[in-house]
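As promised in the previous annual report, we have extended the structural survey to additional targets. Below is the entry for PadR family transcriptional regulator.
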Amino acid sequence: MRVEPGASLGRLEVILLSLLSTSARTGYDVRKWLDRHGAYVGYSAQTSQIYRQLGKLVDREWAFPVPDPRNSGPDAKLYQLTDEGRRKLQEWIDSPYEPPLRPLDPDFQVRLRFAGTDSPEKALELVRTELQFRREHRQDHMFTTELAEQDSGPDLDEDERYWREELLRLQSERGLYMVNSLMAWLEATEIRLEAIIRQRNLKRAR
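The corresponding structure token record, generated without further manual editing, is:
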């Protein structure tokens, strides 16, 4: 089964290709990784999803199964990447990142965790893209009187209208706090990555 070159990868596909790029793994190995680290990238999957997706990678010739010597069970399989699977992963790493409007979306966390391993420069590119987008769209998370008017309706008394406006303000403040906190981390991370890159370049120049 072939997939068109321009087809995008889902999050589970990215995670599987990335994990298999470092070592052969069973579906159970992937399950354990997600149980331990999935929260850090904002993603989880059922065991049945993992095995179905591994089967799809095999169908697409992005991976192939081999017997697992650690397990005597007849169905135990290790999955390894093919050259085509590695090419597909690298294609995703090199593809442009388009931030979603929602702050703290798992897409950025998955991108940084797996595409960022390519190099500090790649991680810096992702952080700068995310930071620029958050700066440009910071106002999108703030309270607007137009939204309050749309939600209030014509038949509310003054107290009820005030309460609904206050509730919207509280919710917009939550979004704004989240964005501000994320931007502070992005700014600190940008500085740190720049320092790491400078240090690496100095070592190479010696």
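Confidence is low (pLDDT under 50) at residues 1-7. The CA atoms of residues 148 and 175 lie 16 Å apart. These points will be discussed at the next consortium meeting with the crystallography subgroup.
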